[in-house]
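User: quick one, sequence for these C-alpha cells?
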C-alpha cells in the first residue's frame, strides 16, 4: 500500500490536487490528516486559486436573479460557459445556491459588485446611505463583513454618491475593495476630486487613497458597473469641462490595485460622446468589453431597442477596440435585454418574459437556456472556483448551507446500577457558533430543560458523557 506520508512529497501532492474542483477537494480533506493539513494551508489555497483563475477551461459564468417580495430570495447559479446548448435544454449547471444574507438596511436586494478569485463582493448600497459590504465565497460557505467605511452620510461628508470596485493585488496576495465618494454641493453637482478609500483584507481596515488625478472625472452614479482585469479595476466615467461643468466626453477610469493609482483609458471613438448611462463594462473571455445600449422610452425604459458590444483585442494597444456585435432588438430577435457576450460568441440575454436566452448572431437563432427570473433581476459575470478564506484568517466567518440554524444531536449514556445502559439523544437547534446571540442562548437553555425532563424519567441511574459541557453552554452549570 502506498504510504502518502513518506513516498510523495507535499509539493507533488499540491501539484496534483490543485487541479481538482472545490467540491472534490472537500472530500479529499476526509481521506487523511496530511491531505487535510495541505488543502487548508495558505500555500495550497493560493496555488489552487492561481490555477483556476488563469485556466480558461475552468471559467464559469455566474448568474443571479431574485424573487418577488415578500421572499426577495437571491438565487445564484454557476454554469460552464462553453459548448452548444440545444433548444429547450438546460445549461450545464455546476452549482446552485441561495444568498444566505439579507439586505436589511436597504430593504431590497444586494448589489453584486463583481467576482474575483471565487469571492463575490456584495454591497447593500441600493436606495439609501448604507454601508454593509461583504466578501463571500459561496462554495465553502465562508465570508467576511467589512467595517463601516470612513466616509459616511452621518459623519462629516453629508450628501454623496458612491461606487465600489473589487480587485486582487497579486504582488501582495491581497484582495482589496476601493470606494469612490463624490460629495454633492448645494446644486447637487458632484464635487471632484472624490474622496477615495480602500479596504485591504490583509490589513483589515479602510484607509484613504490619493485621488488628485480625478479632477473633473466622474463615475456614473446608480447604474455604475465595474470589472477587474489585468490588475486594474475599470469603471465607465465621464469628463466635464472645467469651466462650464458640462459633459465633455466618456472615458474608462482604471485603478491599479497594486500601485493604488488611477489612470484613464480611451473608449472607441463611436462611444466617446454617447449618453454615459447607456454604457456598461464587463469581461469577455478575459478581454475588456463595453456594452452600449439604447432603451425604448429613454433612460427609464425597460427594454433595449439597440445594442452594441465592443471588445478590446489588445489590452495595451490604444486602437484595438473592435465592434463584435450590433443588434436591433426591435426586429424579430427574441431578446428584450442583452447581458453579455459568451465565450462561444453568442449573446446572453433575456426574453421579454424573463427567460434566459442565448442568441447566435451569425445563425440569427435564439434558444432558451432553462432559466426564468423576474425582469431586470439578473446579474452575470465570470467566476473561478477557489478555496479563498478556507484558512479562516482575516476575520472569516462561516454559515450553514441554505441559511437558518444548524441542528446538533447530543447523546448521553444512562447507567442503571451497572446492569443496563440507555442512550438518550436530543436534537437541539443552535446558531453558527462564533456569533452567539440571545436567541442562541435561549435555544441552549430550552435544550437543557428538555434534557433534564428526559433524564428525570431514569430513576436510580447515573449520567455519563459530556453533559457538563452541554450544561455549561446552556448557562445551567
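Assistant:
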Amino acid at each position: 500500500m502506498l504510504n502518502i506520508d513518506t513516498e510523495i512529497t507535499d509539493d507533488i501532492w499540491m501539484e496534483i490536487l490543485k487541479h481538482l474542483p472545490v467540491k472534490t477537494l472537500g472530500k479529499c480533506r476526509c481521506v487523511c490528516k496530511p491531505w487535510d493539513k495541505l488543502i487548508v494551508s495558505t500555500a495550497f489555497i493560493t496555488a489552487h486559486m492561481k490555477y483556476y483563475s488563469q485556466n480558461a477551461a475552468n471559467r464559469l459564468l455566474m448568474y443571479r436573479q431574485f424573487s418577488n417580495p415578500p421572499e426577495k430570495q437571491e438565487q445564484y447559479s454557476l454554469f460552464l460557459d462553453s459548448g452548444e446548448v440545444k433548444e429547450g435544454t438546460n445549461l450545464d449547471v455546476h452549482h446552485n445556491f441561495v444568498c444566505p444574507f439579507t439586505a436589511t438596511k436597504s430593504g431590497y436586494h444586494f448589489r453584486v459588485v463583481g467576482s474575483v478569485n471565487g469571492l463575490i463582493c456584495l454591497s447593500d448600497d441600493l436606495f439609501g446611505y448604507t454601508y454593509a459590504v461583504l466578501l463571500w465565497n459561496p462554495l465553502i460557505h465562508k465570508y467576511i463583513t467589512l467595517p463601516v467605511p470612513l466616509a459616511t452620510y452621518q459623519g462629516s461628508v453629508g450628501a454623496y454618491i458612491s461606487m465600489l470596485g473589487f480587485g486582487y493585488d497579486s504582488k501582495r496576495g491581497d484582495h482589496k475593495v476601493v470606494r469612490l465618494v463624490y460629495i454633492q454641493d448645494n446644486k447637487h453637482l458632484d464635487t471632484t476630486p472624490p474622496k477615495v478609500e480602500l479596504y485591504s483584507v490583509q490589513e483589515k481596515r479602510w484607509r484613504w487613497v490619493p485621488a488628485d488625478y480625478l479632477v473633473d472625472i466622474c463615475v456614473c452614479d446608480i447604474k455604475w458597473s465595474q470589472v477587474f482585469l489585468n490588475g486594474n479595476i475599470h469603471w465607465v466615467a465621464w469628463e466635464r469641462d472645467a469651466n462650464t461643468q458640462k459633459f465633455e466626453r466618456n472615458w474608462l477610469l482604471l485603478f491599479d490595485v497594486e500601485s493604488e493609482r488611477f489612470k484613464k483609458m480611451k473608449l472607441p471613438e463611436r462611444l466617446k460622446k454617447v449618453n454615459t448611462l447607456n454604457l456598461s463594462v464587463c469581461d469577455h473571455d478575459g478581454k475588456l468589453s463595453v456594452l452600449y445600449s439604447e432603451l425604448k422610452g429613454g433612460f427609464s425604459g425597460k427594454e433595449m431597442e439597440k445594442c452594441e458590444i465592443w471588445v478590446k483585442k489588445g489590452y495595451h494597444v490604444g486602437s484595438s477596440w473592435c465592434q463584435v456585435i450590433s443588434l436591433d432588438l426591435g426586429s424579430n430577435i427574441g431578446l428584450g435585454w442583452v447581458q453579455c457576450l459568451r465565450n462561444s460568441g453568442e449573446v446572453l440575454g433575456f426574453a421579454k418574459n424573463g427567460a434566459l436566452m442565448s442568441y447566435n448572431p451569425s445563425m440569427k437563432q435564439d434558444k432558451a437556456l432553462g432559466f426564468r427570473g423576474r425582469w431586470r433581476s439578473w446579474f452575470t459575470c465570470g467566476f473561478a472556483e477557489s478555496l479563498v478564506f478556507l484558512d479562516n484568517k482575516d476575520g472569516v466567518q462561516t454559515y450553514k448551507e441554505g441559511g437558518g440554524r444548524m441542528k446538533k444531536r447530543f447523546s448521553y449514556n444512562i447507567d442503571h446500577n451497572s446492569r443496563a445502559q440507555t442512550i438518550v439523544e436530543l436534537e437541539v437547534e443552535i446558531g453558527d457558533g462564533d456569533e452567539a446571540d440571545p436567541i442562541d442562548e435561549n435555544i441552549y437553555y430550552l435544550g437543557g430543560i428538555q434534557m433534564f425532563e428526559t433524564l428525570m424519567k431514569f430513576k436510580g441511574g447515573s449520567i455519563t458523557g459530556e453533559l457538563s459541557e452541554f450544561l455549561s453552554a446552556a448557562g445551567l452549570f
